[in-house]
């Protein structure tokens, strides 16, 4: 691969999309920060504008990439650059999640037991002498400041079903990939549609679970460190599933429109990598957040 | 001017211009996908931030010139220390290294550009927006963040309207760094010329690959931990609030899991630059090239298991104190390998001391001082004495200013003739070096004494017993600050005019980048070079 001449490596012309993306991100986040500071009107307006600019950028930039790809401008070496890029982007996402997993482990293994008087730094028990350490944390040290859930989220209802759903979706996206490699469009499209449907089903179940947690179980973001870690981890995962479903839908639309060849379809692979990553993170969540 | 600068010869001024079809004026810089343009943007942005952060440092040193409160109130003082650190770390040092990477890596490995040129533009063009957001907090209600760049809760949660802007600015910087790092990895792994095997890569490229991995592993963790700060403040989570079962110390753990690799993110590329400069002016190949690579890898791996040495006094189980102490001190071994390799490279070399070499040699000596005080701070029992004193300030300024910044300045002098096609003014360069070298030691060395005598950091006022050395330090600071204006003048002068530089620029320079014209054409290595 590496012996192809440099002149055949596609170098894009100057592009305004990156700058557009920066303006969009800046507008969105500046609006978000203003909103958090109480400037509701300006904040919402800026956020809406930022989202619109960002979406225009996504359509424009990815549209350019799709057109360039369809014109055959990307040789194998460009393809490898994309692979390195996507692979390490997913690794950076893994590290993003690991910050929250780290918080979960630290809270469970150290912070909560210490507050309950157990372990090396158990003297922190002096702060709230009535507090007993337990996980899931149903009784917080200071109940006047944070809400207390009535019960913990079980693993064997919706979460187990969601595990099955995501694992199945990992299989269907692979089946779709086999279809693409055999140039079987029908299998490709059906496989992608099933994956999208399973992803949407997962999100529906999770929304149901969240509503149940908030209305029936009193398990909220404000329910002490158990609620915080629960919603932070599952929430960011849900966000990633949502992004994954959107990406799969784009790939579906492109497949239906006849894009991709059995040998040249990195966009499909990138999205399926991302989908498998979301799947693996869920397994970690199922074990560490729900099961243990 | 010294003997190893070749006399310019004619013929190289008229390289192929027919490739250079790109937008003119401001559009060129806004939309560029060219690694040289983007490298220049990064370096200019870094220089700007260096002066912005430097101005804050001048305020700090002016306030500390005498005991008592003279110029700023304590809250503004704390804003200065906090913003000085954030601007220098994320705005000056890191972008400078990315600028070098952008300019030099494709030239060094025989690549036509960075692997993902549009993404490269985005990595840069997020930064001005991120820093506009960060610096805008000076006009926010309650002023800029003042809780220290480490953002420890619960103090940082008392920040006023600046708080969400701080968090989102850090998110933007993180996105920029991760995308830049991904690009560097894709470039080095995929774009090397035939024959440019990994074990032939210039040391600068090696240190940058390892740095890129550190960035991808560390920056998302920072993004995660500041996100938890944001939800603690605005959405009622209790990650860092013991009342809900969380722990403020947990923030410190997660933050320093990012923070310690970050330290090496700011020094490994400096090692790389120095490893290019020393062999050039010693006219000998780098001593112990392989051991240099393995030492860099060892430092990078160890950097993920030493984070809690930043928090020895915060309350940790004894086993933790011991583990983190031993792991920390272990880093001195691969670092020592590097220092000895540089010294051995100079041993019996035909040395000449142009400005880049002067800064590089100063780097070795002064960075080693910072390394030694680092070993002292790494020892848990003595850290109980030193922590939160000016000794810590002295330590990290030796590794960051006389370490990272000196290497950056050395790199600029080293490659400026290649970038601009002109030799810089060697006399001014030497003047800049000697003024910086003397003043920086006047600035930071007395801070060791102040710290050992017990002067705390992040305080605008102090006991009169510390007055003497603080005055010395402030005078050093002012001279150092003013000296950098010489650098600014020199760089501008070199861009505009100067003696024509040869392709090789330095007599002892070897490598692909020195086979190109000075300045190189807009597009380089459109045909692959072959490395034997």
Protein architecture, described:
- The complex is a heterodimer of chains A (292) and B (532).
- With 292 residues, chain A is mainly α.
- Chain A folds into two domains: 62 residues, Helix Hairpins, CATH 1.10.287; 216 residues, Cytochrome c oxidase, subunit III, four-helix bundle (Four Helix Bundle (Hemerythrin (Met), subunit A), Up-down Bundle).
- Chain A has seven helices and no strands.
- In chain A, helix 3 packs parallel to helix 7 and helix 4 runs antiparallel to helix 5.
- Chain B has one domain: Cytochrome C Oxidase, Chain A (Up-down Bundle).
- Chain B starts with 24 loop residues before the first helix and ends in a 36-residue tail after the last helix.
- The chains are: A mainly alpha (292), B mainly alpha (532).
- The interface between A and B is large, with 77 and 87 residues.
Quick structural summary:
The complex is a heterodimer of chains A (292) and B (532). By secondary structure, chain A is an all-alpha fold. Chain A contains 7 helices and no strands.
The amount of beta strand of chain B, in percent, is under 5%
* CATH class type of the largest domain in chain A: Mainly Alpha
CATH class of chain B: Mainly Alpha
Low-confidence stretches of chain A: none
What is the helical fraction of chain A, as a range of percent? Answer: over 70%
Order of helices and strands of chain A: HHHHHHH
Reported CATH architecture of chain B: Up-down Bundle
Largest sheet entry of chain A: none
**Tally of domains of chain A:** 2
* Topology of chain B as a string of helices (H) and strands (E): HHHHHHHHHHHHHHHH
Q: Count the beta strands of chain B.
A: 0
Rg of chain A: 23 Å
The major beta sheet of chain B can be summarized as: none
Number of domain units of chain B = 1
Largest interface: A-B, 77 and 87 residues
The end-to-end distance of chain B, rounded to whole angstroms, is 34 Å
Strand content of chain A: under 5%
Structural class, from helix and strand content of chain A? mainly alpha
Query: What value does the average pLDDT of chain B take?
Result: 94
């Amino acid at each position: 691969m590496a012996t192809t001449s440099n002149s055949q490596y596609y170098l894009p012309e100057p592009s305004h999309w990156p700058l557009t993306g920066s303006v969009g991100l800046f507008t969105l986040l500046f609006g978000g920060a203003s909103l958090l500071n109480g400037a509701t009107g300006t904040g919402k307006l800026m956020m809406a504008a930022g989202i619109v600019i960002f979406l225009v950028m996504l359509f424009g930039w990815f549209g350019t990439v799709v057109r360039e790809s369809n014109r055959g401008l990307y040789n194998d070496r460009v393809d490898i650059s994309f692979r390195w890029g996507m692979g390490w982007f997913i690794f950076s996402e893994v590290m993003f999640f690991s910050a929250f997993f780290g918080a979960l482990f630290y809270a469970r293994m150290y912070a909560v037991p210490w507050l309950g008087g157990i372990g090396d730094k158990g003297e922190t028990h002096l702060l709230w002498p009535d507090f007993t350490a337990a996980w899931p944390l149903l009784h917080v040290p200071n109940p006047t400041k944070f809400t207390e859930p009535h019960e913990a989220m079980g693993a064997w209802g919706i979460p187990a079903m969601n595990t099955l759903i995501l694992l199945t979706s990992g299989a269907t996206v692979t089946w779709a990939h086999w279809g693409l490699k055999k140039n079987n469009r029908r299998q490709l499209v059906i496989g992608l549609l099933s994956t999208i449907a399973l992803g949407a089903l997962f999100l529906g179940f999770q929304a149901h679970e969240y509503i149940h947690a908030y209305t029936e179980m009193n398990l909220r973001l404000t329910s002490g460190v158990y609620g915080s870690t629960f919603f932070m981890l599952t929430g960011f995962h849900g966000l990633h599933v949502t992004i994954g479903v959107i990406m799969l839908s784009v790939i579906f639309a492109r497949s239906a429109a006849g894009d991709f060849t059995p040998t040249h379809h990195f966009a499909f692979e990138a999205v399926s990598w991302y989908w498998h990553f979301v799947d693996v993170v869920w397994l970690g969540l199922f074990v560490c957040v729900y099961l243990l | 001017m010294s003997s190893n600068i070749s006399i310019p010869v004619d013929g190289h001024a008229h390289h192929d211009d027919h490739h250079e079809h790109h937008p003119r004026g401001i559009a060129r810089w806004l939309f560029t996908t060219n690694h040289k343009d983007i490298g220049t943007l990064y370096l200019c942005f870094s220089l700007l931030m260096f002066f912005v952060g430097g101005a804050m440092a001048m305020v700090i040193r002016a306030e500390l010139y005498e005991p008592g409160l003279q110029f700023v109130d304590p809250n503004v003082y704390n804003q200065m220390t906090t913003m000085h650190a954030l601007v220098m770390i994320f705005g000056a040092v890191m972008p400078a290294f990315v600028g070098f990477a952008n300019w030099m890596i494709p030239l060094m490995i025989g690549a036509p550009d960075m692997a993902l040129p549009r993404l490269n533009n985005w990595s840069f063009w997020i930064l001005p927006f991120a820093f506009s957001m960060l610096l805008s907090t000076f006009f926010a209600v309650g002023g800029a963040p003042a809780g220290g760049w480490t953002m420890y809760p619960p103090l940082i949660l008392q920040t006023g309207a600046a708080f969400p802007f701080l968090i989102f600015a850090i998110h933007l910087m993180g996105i920029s760094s991760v995308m830049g790092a991904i690009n560097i990895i894709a470039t080095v792994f995929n774009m090397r010329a035939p024959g440019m095997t990994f074990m032939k890569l210039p040391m600068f490229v090696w240190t940058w690959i390892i740095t890129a991995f550190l960035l991808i592993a560390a920056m998302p963790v920072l993004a995660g931990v500041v996100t938890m700060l944001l939800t603690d403040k605005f959405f009622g989570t209790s990650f860092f609030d013991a009342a809900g079962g969380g722990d403020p110390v947990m923030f410190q753990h997660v933050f320093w899991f990012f923070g310690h690799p970050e330290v090496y993110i700011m020094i490994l590329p400096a090692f790389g630059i120095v490893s290019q400069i020393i062999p050039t002016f010693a006219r000998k190949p780098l001593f112990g090239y392989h051991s240099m690579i393995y030492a860099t890898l060892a430092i990078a791996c160890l950097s993920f298991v030493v984070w809690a040495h930043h928090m020895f006094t915060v309350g940790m189980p004894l086993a933790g104190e011991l583990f983190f102490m031993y792991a920390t001190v272990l880093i001195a071994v691969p670092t020592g390998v590097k220092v000895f390799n540089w010294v051995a490279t100079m041993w019996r070399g035909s040395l000449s001391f142009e400005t880049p070499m002067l800064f590089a040699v100063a780097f070795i000596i002064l960075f080693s001082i910072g390394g030694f005080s680092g070993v002292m701070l790494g020892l848990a029992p003595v850290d109980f004495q030193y922590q939160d004193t000016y000794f810590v300030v002295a330590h990290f300024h030796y590794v960051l200013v006389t370490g990272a910044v000196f290497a950056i300045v050395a790199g600029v002098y080293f490659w400026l003739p290649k970038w601009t096609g002109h030799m810089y003014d060697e006399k001014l360069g030497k003047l800049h070096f000697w003024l910086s070298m003397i003043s920086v030691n006047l600035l930071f060395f007395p801070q060791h004494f102040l710290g050992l005598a017990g002067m705390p950091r992040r305080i605008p006022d102090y006991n009169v017993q510390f007055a003497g050395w603080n005055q010395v330090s402030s005078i050093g600071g002012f001279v150092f600050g003013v000296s950098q204006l010489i650098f600014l003048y020199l760089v501008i002068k070199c861009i505009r005019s100067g003696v024509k530089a040869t392709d090789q620029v330095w007599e002892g320079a070897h490598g692909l980048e020195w086979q190109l014209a000075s300045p190189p054409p807009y597009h380089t290595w459109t045909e692959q070079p072959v490395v034997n």
